[in-house]
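Worked example 3. Consider a protein that binds zinc ion.
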Amino acid sequence: MSIEQELMNRANSQCELCTATNDLSVYEVPAGDNSVNSSVLVCATCKEQLNDDTKIDESHWHCLNDTMWSELDAIKVVSYHMMHKLYKQDLIDMMYFEDDVKVWADKGLPEEADEDALVYRDSNGVIINAGDTVVVNKDLPVKGAGFVAKQGTAVRNISLVPNDNTHIEGRVNGVKIQLKTCFLKKM
Ligand SMILES: [Zn+2]
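Given these inputs, the predicted complex is written out as structure tokens:
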């Protein structure tokens, strides 16, 4: 029996992600072994969006709320990958994998998840970069420095704290301190 036929039987001839029944075909999960166990039967809509990030339509993926609990590892891994593409961290945090499946799932993730790509955002979600000027939006006692960074204080020419996108570094009252990004507003 072909993989496609086996998947058709397993899936009752439905897309295993969104349950559509038209234009079904085999999707091989990245970093799998190309067996039935690492393949998923998907419709054309799901397949297009799995293969081309520019085609992703978030409204198509409500099905992730169901597929993330699938008993089939391949379906969970595909769901996990799509959650990453949609930045659904709340769903990702709820997922549970056996150790070996987690290794598989992470292998297939796009490279962009590395630390260099950390994005720093101010209290309004605006992206902040090294060299920017930010304003403190509430009085912040500075631990160890014995002063308060007053609301409205501008901090110029900030630098980003490596590997921690909740903090930036800058000078207040001539002292170099770290500030939490959630208390800052970009100028
Ligand atoms: Zn589908």
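Take a moment to read the result before moving on. The radius of gyration is 23 Å. The pocket of zinc ion is lined by residues 15, 17-18, 20, 42-43, 45-46 (CB under 6 Å).
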